[in-house]
Amino acid sequence: MRIDLSVPKVGVELELNKLLGKGSSGSVSLIKYKGRRDGEMIYAAVKSSNVIHADSLHKEFQILSEFRGCSRIVQCYGTKVQESINNEGDVEFKIIMEYASGGSLRNFMNRFKDMKLPDPLIRRFTRMVLEGLAIIHGHGYVHCDLKPENILVFPGFELKISDFGLSKREGDTNWWTLQYPFAGTPIYMSPQSVSNGETRRGLDLWSLGCVVLEMYTGKRSWWGKNYDLEDLKKGYMPLIPKDLPCDAKLFLMTCFAAETDKRKNAFTLLRHCYLRGDVNKITEPPLVKSNNSNDITLELEKIELRLSQLRCNIGGGETSGELKSS
């Protein structure tokens, strides 16, 4: 589908096709309108919210504006959040985004038997999501709500990360309270984010592990037992089936490492043996010059990565089950 970056201006006739989804903070609808360039009919997704959730929508628009042109982030059009009056006479705020004709990853999984995806496709999808996370983290953000519903499927089975309403600057804990102890969806949260509201990049990598596990099993993480937030606070990780490929288990164990730093970073995980193949679609984000201590840490990470690759190449052992941090 061709994407026309021309945004419909005031007075352009918009046709509402259908409601794509509705949540507590607003709704997403499919619209179509004639493009300004050639008059061709254009499809787009419009995210709307009321006055109560306007700040969240403005923040999401600002974040998405920083990711213009990023192939793994859903694109947002226009230069500002649009404001209008709806049929009920209430003020409504809207942002216009590209339309994902394949729906969410959740919708996509529903089309497969037992909601399980084939191994080659899971690896490809994992690489795409990691490419998106590498860009997000490179800009200093943590998504905070990575899950199948917030990963969109575009033509050619291309994935893009969406829904940045809960995203935060890395390390920001000013929002945390006892009443709101975690940022996103509990079952995809990491132990540190549930315990003290930690919003570091390791949160997204833990969530990624949950998504990858879900693509293999067709079930949400913690399917092997009754889920309880206390399990995370005690250091438990989701059950990893024994029949998964060895390199997949090693990848998941890295995502589910008890210590945040042990989960590495998105760019390093793109070089994991689980994702053999092309990793040159993105460039490593520029970093501030490191001191000697950071240089040593980087070298240790490289050594650990080589050891992980070696374990994959020799077949490794059975490394599954419900583990607890030491």
Automatic annotation (TrEMBL):
Which Pfam family, giving just one, matches this sequence? Answer: Pkinase
Q: Please tell me where ATP binds in this chain.
A: K47
Question: Keywords, A to Z?
Answer: ATP-binding, Kinase, Nucleotide-binding, Serine/threonine-protein kinase, Transferase
Highest taxon above the source species: Eukaryota
PROSITE patterns in the record, alphabetically? PROTEIN_KINASE_ATP, PROTEIN_KINASE_DOM, PROTEIN_KINASE_ST
InterPro entries hit by this protein: Kinase-like_dom_sf, Plant_MAPKKK, Prot_kinase_dom, Protein_kinase_ATP_BS, Ser/Thr_kinase_AS
Q: Does the keyword Transferase apply?
A: yes
Q: Which PANTHER family match?
A: CCR4-NOT TRANSCRIPTIONAL COMPLEX SUBUNIT CAF120-RELATED, PROTEIN KINASE FAMILY PROTEIN-RELATED
The UniProt entry's sequence similarity note says:
Belongs to the protein kinase superfamily.
Q: What is this protein called?
A: Mitogen-activated protein kinase kinase 1-like
Record organism: Camelina sativa (False flax)
